Amino acid sequence: MSEATSAFSNQRAVNIGFGVLIVLLYVFLMAPLVMIVGASFTNGLLIEFPPQGLSLRWYVEFFDRQDLVDGLLLSLRIGAVTAIVTMTVAMMAAMAGQVISGRLSGWFQLGMTLPLLVPELLTAVGLLFFLYKIQLAKTVMGLQMGHILMSFPYAYVSIAAAMRQVPASLEEASASMGATGWQTFRLVILPLVMPGLAMGGIFAFINSFDLYTISLLLKPLGGNTLPLALFDFLTYEFKPTAAAAATLSILLSILGVALVQKLVGLQRAF
Amino acid sequence: MTLTRRNFLKTSAGAAALGAIGAPSLAQSDTFIVNMFGGRWENDWREHVMPKFAEQIGRDFDLDIGLGMAWISNFRAAGARQPPFPAVMLNEKYTAMIRNDGYFAELTPEKVPNMADVIEPAILKGNTAVTGMLAPLVIAYRTDLVSEPPKGWADLWDERFKGQLGLYKITNSAATMMAMWAGEHFGSGRDDIETAVAKFKELGPFPQIGYSAQLTPLLTQGQIAVAPIDLGEVKTMQEQGLPIDYVVPEEGMLVFDHSFSVFENHPDKQTGFDYVNFVLSPEIQLWMAENWLIAPTNKTVELPEELQKWPLQPEVVSQAIRFDWDETLAIMPGLNDLWERTI
Description:
In chain A, 80% of the residues lie in helices and 0% in strands.
């Protein structure tokens, strides 16, 4: 066997190995989703995979359960406001980060991601005491503040990365042609960072939608987010209604990604 | 409509404004709020119980849904001077954590008239709480998988149940109670945690479950054949046609006790007393017995014929094994640590 043939065989083996690895990775990532989606269509009384028969009864039960529907609506509302506020604030922070140079820049970046570095539970306890001090504990506003705080770094990282791709020369060119700062932002910078901005918003929304620990301590009187409502549900009723709720959450995430695709295109966002 | 960038931004800004405007609404309302567990507890309480109380006080109501530790964290953060709602229901384990810190008002028959009719063990230390719900903990077993059922807690150590048991995690008060019982039964006393944990290690391996409803699927699927469990779960499984029966342990059954307290410094304290009185009323106590198999603590409740077969009678419940939760709380950190490291 010639050297060329041997090298070709080796390369083929490596390719097959990588292919198998990628398939295994996808199986690892997708298996829980497939199982929970499958279990949501069971006709049986328990969360199980493969499902016993096929039925939409647990989706019907989900929408019949006021506690779960209320949880879904509160999560959607909190997530939407979180996405909008974090996009706005993170955009401003990313622009500020652009003009900070030297060692200070590193500290600034670190500061913007601090909520990720501190354990969520400790942040939640600290916020809880703070919110009681300012009379906002157990309110939707208090919960909203917690979600914005915890989701901000995700939006910031995405938007700051997009901002770094914008050449400073474009701003200078825009200014030299007589554009005001606002016109430069609106007509030059914003269109260029839009994919990162949209992704940041989507990350913030999804993160907010999934937050459990901080919601557990900060949730408003009489209100529950969907993850909390689901945990309460599973604590006392281990039924496939929870799988139906999880499937709906997955669908929402897919819709979010589809929205990014529609607005800016996924290729530009990553 | 075409989804343009401008439309998207306009819509987003509008949604944010609406969200912000609606944000403080819950905090400012005159709604009467108390806490409750989630799932079927919440649904039933909202649908069948609270509307009657709302009618009585002429106000809207809402429920704060959650679990003990999150509520305790909130009460501690709020401090005794500004509790988040007027009355509270807690497992006694949690009541004991804060009952000496000035949070609770003293409950007396003058303030809560139905207290005059409750069984004596229902009135907790310092009159800071009264048990309104007693959920019996019995031993359930699969009749098709167990030929000779256990008679009591000690039988769980019989070889014939090896590999067939399901138990609670030590974070659940049921496991705490069982460990203390084991310390007393097999060792030198309830605080003999070394003996207790060593005895539970003998039972292994066994699935450890956080809550009763998570034991139910294991029994249903036959993954386990014997488990301590809420009486209400037994009834639910039997109604589904499963081959399940139970025994009241001969040493005495354990109980999950959910006690009700009123916050001393809440401005709506009087409605809190009215609420506790309402929960202790014969009507609500009977409703809980019929729907949840909760043992009434009000002695005047007459259980209907169909409930007589269940161990809910005041004389039966009064003989349940009870624990001093102040002493238990002192033991718990060591017990939990040893359990987690050993089992």
